[in-house]
Write a structure and sequence with these properties.
Blueprint: E1 7-16, H1 19-55, H2 73-78, H3 80-86, H4 95-113, E2 135-138, E3 148-151, E4 154-157, E5 161-166, E6 176-185, E7 188-197, E8 212-217, E9 221-225, E10 229-232, H5 235-253, H6 259-293, E11 296-300, H7 315-334, E12 338-342, E13 366-368, E14 374-376, H8 377-389, E15 412-413
Parallel strand pairs: 8-11, 10-15, 11-12
Antiparallel strand pairs: 1-5, 1-7, 2-6, 3-4, 4-5, 6-7, 8-9, 9-10, 13-14
Helix pairs in contact: 1-4, 5-6, 6-7
Bound molecules: zinc ion (ZN).
Zinc ion (ZN) is lined by residues 351, 353-354, 356, 369, 371, 373.
Length: 425
């Protein structure tokens, strides 16, 4: 496997700045917007004057005054010093952010004037209106000379201070934060991190995908694949959880603040940690097994907004499921394999054989359709997920069950304990 490519991701988090910080953020945004417009004006002006000289007869159009030097990123960046003298408020903005602002203009400008390898050009750069998306970028994060540092859920920005970040999901393991862009949206301020992992192999080309599966999360089984294999929730994990619940009940009976309460609270905290570690290890085992077995893994995407949640009983599982999905996606990327999230609507109701709706409550564990298909309900869902996720891929056997009824109706369980996988990714 080649380790010559890198994986880039963007993770966005909401910020909760203080009202004083909001004022600073707004001011920076506005000053940088004006400076962007000024620098764009300078470039357009130069273009107008020089074009005039080349295209037109000098009798009709004579350049007025002396033509200034061609403005580019370097001349404009060196003018920043002067800007700060003329407008001292610019001194309060972190210098790298001002350079990034000019770099952004420079790349828009080049995209407009220089065609790319397909001969395509971008549109003419536009002046930014007040109220347009307001953002600025810190080009380095967490390095010694960086203007932005993320520690835990605190983002420390040079000349602004410490802002709390709502880390609704952790920065994935192995990724380095390259840039931080602060931006304003309708409902507040956000930070967008550009992440990079350089140890990632190049992904398997799409047309070389040979095997694919769908995975469905179940109530009694951890997951079921489209070829009828299931992964059970391990016994040791169930046992540890039962112990945890018992110790928590014990804690509730103790007097708060007493020595015994403290002791018991400590015990519960340790058990929590133990259960969390076991779960993570189990997730890694399953993820490695899946990635070893299939080139493409299709899963139900729980992050689809506005999704009608008819699966209330599953909501407790959702937390564990999304933790697993993150691990699985990370493992897949490391191995150059593909994962794809699809809209889960209808996957448990529709028949994977004929597409007909077969309404069933959660208690009904078997999917039984008038077309003759009788299989485990989770298996049916997994088949539907695979069908949605493998559209356009030339994979044999990826259309659910077409003409033959399945021989086996029950899923078979995978024995993960036999395989040795490490949890190190
Ligand atoms: Zn059917």
């Amino acid at each position: 496997m080649q380790y010559n490519s890198s994986m880039k991701l963007t993770y966005q988090y909401k910020l909760s700045p203080t009202s004083e910080q909001v004022v600073i953020l707004e001011t920076w945004g506005e000053l940088l917007r004006r400076h962007y417009n000024y620098a764009l004006g300078q470039r357009l002006d130069w273009l107008n004057r020089t074009r005039c000289q080349i295209d037109r007869c000098s009798l009709l159009c004579e350049p007025i005054g002396e033509i200034p030097d061609k403005p580019d990123y370097y001349t404009q960046a060196s003018d920043l010093k002067q800007t700060k003298e003329l407008f001292p408020e610019y001194k309060n903005i972190y210098a790298d952010c001002q350079q990034q602002n000019l770099m952004r203009l420079d790349s828009c400008w080049k995209r407009w004037l220089i065609p790319d390898k397909n001969g395509k050009r971008g549109g003419r750069p536009r002046f930014k209106k007040r109220g347009d998306i307001c953002s600025f970028t810190f080009p380095r994060v967490n390095s010694p000379k960086a203007g932005a540092h993320l520690t835990g859920n605190t983002l420390k920005l040079s000349k602004i201070g410490e802002i709390e970040v709502i880390l609704h999901r952790p920065i994935p393991d192995g990724f380095e934060i390259k840039q931080a862009t602060i931006l304003r949206k309708a409902d507040g301020w956000y930070v967008s991190f550009s992440l990079e992992d350089k140890t990632v192999p190049a992904a398997l080309p799409i047309d070389e995908i040979k095997s694919a599966t769908g995975i469905d999360v179940g109530l009694e089984k951890f997951l079921t694949t489209a070829d009828g294999q299931s992964v059970a929730v391990p016994q040791y994990y169930r046992k540890a959880q039962a112990t945890l619940a018992r110790q928590q009940r014990k804690l509730a009976r103790k007097t708060k603040g007493s020595k015994n309460y403290q002791k018991q609270a400590n015990k519960v905290a340790k058990l929590h940690l133990h259960v969390a570690r076991q779960r993570k290890e189990f997730h890694f085992q399953v993820a490695h097994w899946l990635v070893n077995s299939y080139d493409l893994i299709v899963f139900e995407n729980l992050n689809i907004k506005g999704l009608a949640r008819t699966r209330l009983a599953k909501s407790i599982l959702d937390v564990a499921w999304s933790a697993f999905l993150q691990i699985m996606q990370a493992v897949a990327v490391r191995r150059g394999k593909h994962t794809r999230g699809v809209d889960p609507r209808g996957t448990s109701i529709n028949c994977s054989g004929c597409g007909q709706r077969v309404e069933k409550t959660l208690a009904v564990r078997v999917h039984s359709c008038s077309c003759g298909l009788v299989i485990d309900r989770d298996w049916n869902s997994a088949l539907n997920l695979l069908k949605h996720g493998s559209v356009g891929l030339p994979i044999p056997g990826c259309g659910g069950y077409l003409d033959t009824s399945p021989v086996k109706q029950q899923v078979s369980f995978v024995n993960l304990r036999c395989s040795r996988y490490t949890a190190c990714g």
